[in-house]
Amino acid sequence: MAAFSRREVRDALTLIDVAYSAEGPEPFAERVVEALARLVPSEIVGYNERELVSHRLLAARETPSVDPPGEVIEAVSTFCGEYPLSMLKRRCETRALKISDFVSPRELHRLDYYNHALRPLGMEHQMRLWLSAPPGVARYFYVSRPPANGDFTERDRDLLELLRPFLVAFRDRFDAHLADEANGNGLTDREGEILAWVALGKTNQEIAALLVVSPHTVRKHLEHAFKKLRVHTRTAAVTRAFARWN
Q: Counting runs of H as helices and runs of E as strands, what totals does the chain give?
């Protein structure tokens, strides 16, 4: 692993401090992504949580915030399978990986993903760092650069990998906070977990698939949660269960 400069160590410690102290309804605050952008200078830096099958976003932070055209969003889903850093292929990786780890620039330029998803945004180089995630979900940070800025270095990779254990711990802590918030209302861990998925817009069928249970089981857990929270709708249940973040 590379020896880091004092500035890099300071910026890494700042990111850890920001992530540790942040609170809110999403796993990572905007300030965490901004701190990562200072640590590994990039044109676009972000964090995503996505469903593997539908590619639906469950959580997202990005700086600067980019509003891509509809055709680019569609291309990300359509051509995801051929992308070297595809979440379908790499979601269990523990290393930070670069596009150039797998393909040359010439090979990259032949890919539909590059031509329809990366090039329209002016991006050529990308590196992703995956966090632990439940079945059916991918969680990852990404840093992207245009051609003129050059590829990411081994030092950049080492910085991300140095941070990974802390980022995994912070993400796990977020889930623990959700469970604690729910338990404060007398909910079981599973009831709180299901309400957390409801808060992210998941249907009973989708939650059942993620938890590998039947939709009937999900429905019964929700019925019990509604009774404990003294509410009658999903929105009211989420609002009451996670009142501190509403």
A: 11, 5
